[in-house]
Amino acid sequence: MIFGHKDADGDTLGCSLAFAEALRTEGKDIWVLVPPPLPPMYTFLPGFEDIQAEPPHGVDPQLVFFFDSGNLERSGSAVRRIAEHATIINIDHHPSNTRFGDINVIDPNASAVGQMVMEMLDHFGYAITPTIAANLYVALLTDTGGFRHENTTPRALEDAARLAHLGADPGHIATQVYKMRPETTLKLSGMALATMRVEMDGRLAWAKVTKPMLKEASAAMAESEGIIDTLNSIAGLELAILFKEVSGDLTKISVRSRGAVDAAALCASFGGGGHIRAAGAEIDKPMDVAVKFVLAAAKEAILAASPRS
Ligand SMILES: [Mn+2]
Hints:
The chain is α/β, with parallel strands linked by helices. It has 2 domains: about 1-180, inorganic pyrophosphatase (n-terminal core); about 185-305, Diaminopimelate Epimerase, Chain A, domain 1 (Roll), CATH 3.10.310. It has helices spanning about 10-25, 80-85, 115-125, 130-145, 155-165, 170-180, 185-195, 210-215, 225-230, 265-270, 285-305; strands spanning about 1-5, 30-35, 65, 85-90, 105, 195-200, 205-210, 240-245, 250-255, 275, 280-285. The strands form 2 sheets. The protein has a 6-stranded mixed beta sheet with strand order 6-7-8-9-11-10. The chain has a 5-stranded parallel beta sheet with strand order 2-1-3-4-5. Strand 6 and strand 7 form a beta hairpin. It is globular. Bound molecules: manganese (II) ion.
């Protein structure tokens, strides 16, 4: 059984589907479980239609793989029940990984877990088919922000080139990932960006996505995914924060750092985690309260990390 994490992204989905295909080729019975809702932009991934929300009744897996999950909670409520009987193999690149597995393979130097899966397939002698290559290319493309983030290492580009040689189609995949946005997504983005505030002489920017905006734009919260990166494109910015109103007493934050602040550490103080440059958290507080707490902590972190004279 293979688990992806909730708020599924290209890395967790690409790795899960790629590894599932490889194991099925070897005659193994594989279930791929990812907590819903699944982002519609990834429906083009080979094998996407096989993803299930819940394990089939009576299935008792011996081995459970996790790809790209920093902690067990990231994979939903079904996990604990199933994982009781199984050996858990935890494959991830988040430095904050809680090492919840019986076997933990954590490589913080991997730009995407997709690269770790490539190594595993090579190691165990599984062929990388064109469909496996496409899934792993998506993992690498999306986790490097379209080969733009700092984690776009020579190794990432070499692995991408190899996947292209093996049948991944970079132009086609880029179109599927970056040029298939529904109108509703851009409408929501416009509304959220209209709430943008830039503070501390341009070092901090933040914006909000509220429930009324979702209704007005006919959009789902998952469509807010790209807004943080638009915020983060402001010249000279050090920290970008997007607040998402999930319900009256639950607010999610997405954080991006281009300065000295460790976004993962900032989010960890609110029970979240992630990478130095990109992190998130779920806060059990109404939006306005979360905004107050998080902005106070963010400003303190900016000043502590590099006080500007
Ligand atoms: Mn990842």
